[in-house]
DNA sequence: TGAAATATGTCAACGAGGCTGACTTATATC
DNA sequence: GATATAAGTCAGCCTCGTTGACATATTTCA
């Protein structure tokens, strides 16, 4: 039975669902703050990232990666092109294609965004149980350090005493228990 | 040097950035399809999930978990309450609070959504290098199997020949190279 | 007891970023 | 020369985030 050894408990898929939510929330939070200063959003980030990393990408390839429509892509791509972060060249073998490249400015911004995300990842990998441990410990390490305690505390609440009320509500329509139920339209 | 042993290559933070994107894309794609049948979206899912898992959650706690505004939460919470998936009770120790619980229907839907996500996770954990290997192999295992080859192919493209054009564009304003540059407003 | 703080709900307006559908323009292919 | 393909665009819609202002019930504290 592989348990990774380090700080992670046994992997429960149910716990991982939440950890993935928290890890991703904080993972995209870093670049979001930077992007806001440029008037860009997450959609711009994704485009800039993939164009930076795979120069010469075509529109069709980008659409396949991002899984969004041409119209959605075009809105953010247009911003990035007009503001000089991305440039297009016509394809040489197929002149219908538009090959996408980052400009110098674009590459600089992409690097800045990559830096903060890579920093979080590197920090997580460097933690005990980060690189070689369980997915659980890796994802926990990806969460903002200040928040980790709160997440642990929440997840420890699993199952036992709810604090206030009792267990889950039984009926579909709300059969009045000890706590008053604020129903759909009941007086 | 910990390498996890199994199928993952050495962990590069830069690769992990992309793998996390692809893994998360497919991870939320599963429930999205189910939610659409109920006329719900991702925001409903998040609320339903946390209320199901932590019965008796207060509004304030939920806001802290989701990191959204009261108004945003209220819109989706209202849907879930009106349609009978979630019920509220007034708190007993503090009657200002509204404790949130899933109804039977709500718990059923939550379970259905959890099931597809847990299935993907369990499958990933069961793969060689899934539970005990590197984060890289775990994330790759989280990607939709049909898509894995495409992701690998894309990531293999890293660095070398672009296929069509040449390297990254140097100048800020677009100095005409061999491929014609379709500039901002140049004729 | 009365004032202030707290938990929640709500109205209005706005922006980002998805979507569909329809249509145009270049270019390639047969 | 007809047809298919890559890309761009217009219009309109939906979800889900935001801010700001304000109402109500309840608790806490001086």
TrEMBL record, chains A, B:
GO MF entries: DNA binding; DNA-binding transcription factor activity
One record GO biological process: response to stress
Keyword Repressor: no
PROSITE patterns with a match to the protein in the record: HTH_MARR_1, HTH_MARR_2
Coiled coil regions in record: none
Keywords: DNA-binding, Transcription, Transcription regulation
Domain of life, per lineage: Bacteria
HTH marR-type domain mapped to chain residues: 13-160
Pfam families xrefs: MarR_2
SMART domains: HTH_MARR
Keyword DNA-binding: yes
Protein name in UniProt: HTH marR-type domain-containing protein
Organism, as annotated: Methylobacterium gregans
């Amino acid at each position: 039975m592989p348990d990774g050894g380090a700080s992670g408990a046994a992997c429960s898929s149910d716990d991982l669902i939440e950890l993935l939510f928290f890890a991703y929330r904080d993972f995209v939070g870093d670049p979001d703050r930077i992007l806001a200063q440029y008037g860009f959003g997450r959609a711009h980030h994704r485009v800039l990232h993939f164009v930076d990393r795979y120069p010469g990408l075509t529109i069709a390839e980008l659409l396949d990666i991002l899984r969004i429509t041409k119209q959605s892509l075009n809105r953010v791509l247009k911003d990035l092109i007009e503001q000089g972060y991305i440039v297009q060249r016509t394809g040489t073998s197929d002149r219908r294609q538009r090959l996408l490249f980052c400009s110098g400015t674009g590459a600089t911004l992409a690097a800045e965004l990559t830096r903060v995300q890579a920093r979080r990842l590197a920090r997580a990998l460097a933690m005990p149980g980060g690189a070689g441990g369980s997915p659980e410990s890796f994802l926990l390490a990806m969460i903002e350090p200040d928040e980790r305690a709160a997440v642990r505390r929440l997840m420890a609440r699993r199952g036992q005493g709810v604090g206030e009320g009792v267990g889950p509500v039984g009926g579909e329509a709300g059969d009045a228990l000890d706590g008053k139920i604020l129903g759909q339209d009941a007086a």
